[in-house]
């Protein structure tokens, strides 16, 4: 639970709802020149997100032009065995939001590098929109998931399509080429499974 007691926010225009300081997309509170980031606002409690929120605030204070953070491009990583990492929408959430969804999976059991590592459990799943081939989300369970999720975030940030991600040459054998294979699966082009 965020610690908000004794900060002197009572009697200000700062709103607290359900234990969270309410902010706009630029982390501004209702009180002029007062910002809030991290665990006190209703965004995921992730250190990497709080850090970017802090930078967003500092750049505004310095008078720089800033863009709001895209919450669909915030990675979620679980450091367990096997590792779990995801970014963007799940297949279910994408359908709820009205997308015509196409999803494809590539199992690590078909990855040469995963076999070399002895870590064949899990898969990469790419979720895309049929209309524009937009990558809506990527979900990984398996070896080095928390490391290889980042190329997916970059692809989404650059508005790459599933086809572009699938056609990008990946070194072999690597665990990350499983992302390429899953993206190829969106268009039924996977050849190594």
Short description:
The protein is α+β, with helices and mostly antiparallel strands. It folds into 2 domains: 1-69, FAD/NAD(P)-binding domain, CATH 3.50.50; 72-185, 2-Layer Sandwich (Enolase-like, domain 1).
Explain what this protein looks like in three dimensions:
Helix content is 28%, strand content 18%. 31% of the residues are buried. It contains 6 helices and 7 strands; from the N terminus they run ββαββαβαββααα. The protein has helices spanning 47-61, 91-96, 112-117, 145-157, 162-167, 177-185; strands at 16-17, 20-21, 76-78, 83-88, 101-107, 123-129, 135-142. The chain is α+β, with helices and mostly antiparallel strands. The protein has 2 domains: 1-69, 3-Layer(bba) Sandwich (FAD/NAD(P)-binding domain); 72-185, FAD/NAD-linked reductase, C-terminal dimerisation domain (Enolase-like, domain 1), CATH 3.30.390.
Low-confidence sequence ranges:
none
Tell me, what is the CATH class of the largest domain? Answer: Alpha Beta
Element order, helices and strands?
Answer: EEHEEHEHEEHHH
The CATH topology of the largest domain is Enolase-like, domain 1
Residue fraction in strands: 15-25%
Name the strands of the widest sheet in spatial order: 3-4-7-6-5
Q: Give the oligomer, counting copies of the same chain as homo and different chains as hetero.
A: single chain
Reported for the largest beta sheet, the result is: 5 strands, antiparallel
What does the radius of gyration come to? 20 Å
Specify the CATH homologous superfamily of the largest domain.
FAD/NAD-linked reductase, C-terminal dimerisation domain
What's the mean pLDDT score?
96
Classify the helix fraction into a percent range: 25-40%
| CATH architecture tag of the largest domain | 2-Layer Sandwich
Can you count the helices? 6
Q: What overall form do the CA principal axes indicate? A: elongated
Give the total of domains. Answer: 2
Secondary structure class reads alpha+beta
- List how many beta strands DSSP finds: 7
Taking the alpha carbons of the first and last residues, their distance comes to: 46 Å
């Amino acid at each position: 639970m965020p610690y908000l007691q004794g900060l002197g926010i009572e009697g200000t225009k700062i709103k607290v709802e359900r234990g969270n300081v309410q902010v706009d997309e630029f982390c501004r509170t209702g009180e002029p020149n007062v910002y809030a980031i991290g665990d006190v606002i209703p965004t995921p409690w992730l250190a990497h997100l709080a850090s970017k929120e802090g930078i967003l605030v500092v750049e505004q204070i310095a008078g720089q032009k800033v863009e709001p953070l895209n919450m669909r491009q915030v990675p979620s990583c679980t450091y367990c065995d096997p590792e779990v990492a995801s970014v963007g929408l799940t297949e279910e959430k994408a359908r709820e939001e009205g997308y015509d969804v196409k999803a494809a999976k590539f199992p690590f059991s078909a990855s040469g590098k995963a076999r070399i590592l002895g870590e064949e459990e899990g898969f990469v799943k790419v979720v895309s929109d049929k209309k524009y081939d937009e990558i809506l989300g990527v979900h990984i369970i398996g070896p080095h998931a928390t490391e290889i999720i980042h190329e997916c975030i970059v692809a989404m940030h650059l508005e790459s399509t599933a086809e572009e991600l699938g056609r990008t040459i990946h070194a072999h054998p690597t665990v990350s080429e499983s992302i390429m294979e899953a993206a190829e699966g969106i268009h039924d082009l996977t050849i190594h499974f």
